[in-house]
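User: Hey, quick favor. My workstation is busy. Could you predict this chain's structure for me?
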Amino acid sequence: MPEQPPHPNDQHRWLTPVELETWRRFSLMLHKLPTALETQLQQDAGLRYVEYYVLAGLSDQPGHRMRMSDLAVLANSELSRLSHLISRLERRGFVRREPDPTNGRYTHAILTEAGRAHLVEAAPGHVARVRDLVFDVLDPAVLDSLRTAAEKISERIDRREQQDCPGSAVAP
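Assistant: No problem, here it is.
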């Protein structure tokens, strides 16, 4: 994003030099962090970051199951892309699919025992890397500010998505 000098007739709100530097550092971190986490997960557990996230999301649900459509929202993924991801995890024996017993129009993704065992094995290394890259370098006040900023930005994104696509459901 090139720094733009203010023009007297310009209606745009350009970023200040401090905002621009903050944005650049934040954008770089948004790009580098998932890559660093995925590298560790690939090396230690043979998992992509999103695969770990899906397995962890299923493990947190009652019965380790979730509707595919809800899981797509959790994973911030299109349903078709999630379906391909679930197929890969099925081939490895980590998940299986079953029709939703309450509504056959939906499909559940279910974490298998093998998937749970793999997740339990992968989790300590992942948590150690998250702690090393994020929590160990920030003091409690900065962590509190980071959490607050993440909440505010996420809420703003959710509101904008609702405004831009009024018929779409946004996860809480």
